[in-house]
Amino acid sequence: MPTFRYVAIDAAGRLQRGVSEAVNEAALVQALRRDGLSPVRAEPDRGESLIGRIDLTITRRGFRRQDVANFTRELAIMLAAGQDLDRALRFLTEMAPNTRLRGSLEALRNAVRDGSPLAAAMGKQPKSFSRLYVGLVRAGEAGGTLAATLERLALVLERERGLASSIRSAMIYPTLLFIAMVGSVSFLLTSVLPEFVPLFAQNGAKLPASTQFMIDSGHILSAYGLYLLVALGVAGLAAGQALKRPTLRMFVDRQMLRLPILGTLAKEILAARFCRTFGTLMLNGVPLIAALTIVRDVIGNTAAVAAMDVVSASAKGGAGLAAPLSASRLFPARMIYLLRLGEETAQLGQLCLRAAEIHEEETRLSLQRIVALLVPAITIVMGAAVAGIVSSLILAMLSLNSLAG
Q1: Looking at the DSSP assignment, which residues form a beta bridge with residue 16?
Q2: Do residues 318 and 189 share a domain?
Q3: Are 262 and 397 contained in the same domain?
Q4: What is the pLDDT of residue 235?
Q5: Mean pLDDT confidence for 139-153
Q6: How many other β-carbons are positioned within 10 Å of the β-carbon of residue 383?
Q7: Average pLDDT of span 86-90
Q8: Quick one: 41 and 90 in the same domain?
Q9: Which of 178, 186, 199, 374 has the fewest other C-beta atoms within 10 Å?
Q10: Are residues 24 and 67 both part of a single domain?
């Protein structure tokens, strides 16, 4: 006789899990009802428990940002159309494009069917769903506005993805240009210039200092180039480990915000992230202190995290947000003004989202300005380097002609 695993609710409202033999699932359900249990689910025993399967799925790699955004948008659409949560999750599970997503969504659906709230089920998969995500879903469930909350959350994820995509796209061309510059200079130093060294040595001419410097640089690059790359990689790893120290990370993050051009861009990104996250939380009914705690965890910059601690302490004392944020000198003045206006008019959430749109647009404009400066700067440096190598070679050839004359 086949064996089935089941989940049921007893008369006291507690979840009961177990294994039982039955002819089929229908017979098992009838037997459970005769025992005073309300079956939630029953399935053939495959040698693993429901909880074991869920825990196994949770240990897998989490969703990509694109996956989370698509899942959120589709779940919001189905809930708004009147689908119940279980049917919506079942549809998304069946339509998952790969087995990894299908397994994670199945774990999520199993947890919900076992009686767990959606937010709690998502909280068990922290690699896929951030604290911001879980907090908004919890607020939506508590307020009975889960579909609308997921719609706003999908908008937040899409805006974040769009901003990140803008940053990556803007840096592609300068990065390729920089790689081309390094490759061209390395090729000239290690492959082209050494071809003339025997000619110079046969004639015994004293080479100009610039030519000798280029030749020595080519020899060093040829002999130790690989070691230099390894050293740079080790230095990068060492810097990454050093930045894990709170004091050093705080210093670096604070100094980054003070740089002339990059600091302005970093402040705009920081303001956009803060306003988008905080405004969405406020509009979804998350309490002020809880919203500040979530923002603190997702903002990313340790100097801003310290500022959030001051703001939270000020809010707990009944004071506003604008004054301590202004005192930190980490955020643009436009954001501070809109926050103060939101506090005065009791429209903090709406004005935060409006500020987020302004700072996201300013971020895109700042990126365009930086790229507009960076591309010609790299081009000029590359041209100067190539010109220096060629001019050094020409000077050496002129020295040979003078010696021959």
Answers
A1: 8
A2: yes
A3: yes
A4: 92
A5: 81
A6: 11
A7: 85
A8: no
A9: 199
A10: no
Using DSSP, how many helices (H) and how many strands (E) does the chain show?
17, 3
Residue 71 domain-assigned (yes or no): yes
Same structural domain, 206 and 346: yes
123 within a domain of the structure (yes/no): yes
Does residue 234 register a pLDDT over 90?
Answer: yes
Lookup result for tokens 């708004």: 80
In this predicted structure, what is the pLDDT of residue 55?
32
Q: Which two tokens stand for residue 290?
A: 């809880």
391 vs 386: CA distance, rounded Å:
8
Strands (E), 310-378: none
**More confident of the two residues 252 and 37:** 252
Q: Is there a single domain that holds both residue 343 and residue 378?
A: yes
Q: Is 172 helix (H, G, I), strand (E, B) or coil?
A: helix
State how many domains the chain has.
Answer: 3
**Residue 141 belongs to domain with CATH number:** 1.20.81.30
Distance of CA 150 to the CA centre of its chain: 19
In a domain, residue 163? The reply is: no
Contact yes or no for 336/322 (Cβ under 8 A)? yes
> Whole domain around residue 19: which residue ranges?
3-47
Higher pLDDT, 298 or 330: 330
H or E element, residue 38? strand 38-44
In this structure, the answer to whether residues 95 and 229 fall within a common structural domain is: no
Query: Tokens 């280029």 correspond to what residue?
Result: 214
Instruction: Give the pLDDT confidence of 184-207 residue by residue, as tens digits.
Output: 888 888 888 888 777 777 766 677
> Is the same domain home to 192 and 321?
yes
Q: Scanning the structure block, which residue is given the tokens 């050494």? A: 194
Looking at the DSSP bridge assignments, the partners of residue 21 are: 3
Tens of pLDDT, residue by residue over 32-52, are 777 877 765 667 765 433 333
Q: Are the C-beta atoms of 96 and 105 separated by less than 8 Å?
A: yes
164 found inside a domain: no
Residue 241, classed as helix, strand or coil, is helix
Q: From CA 137, how far away is CA 151, in angstroms rounded? A: 11
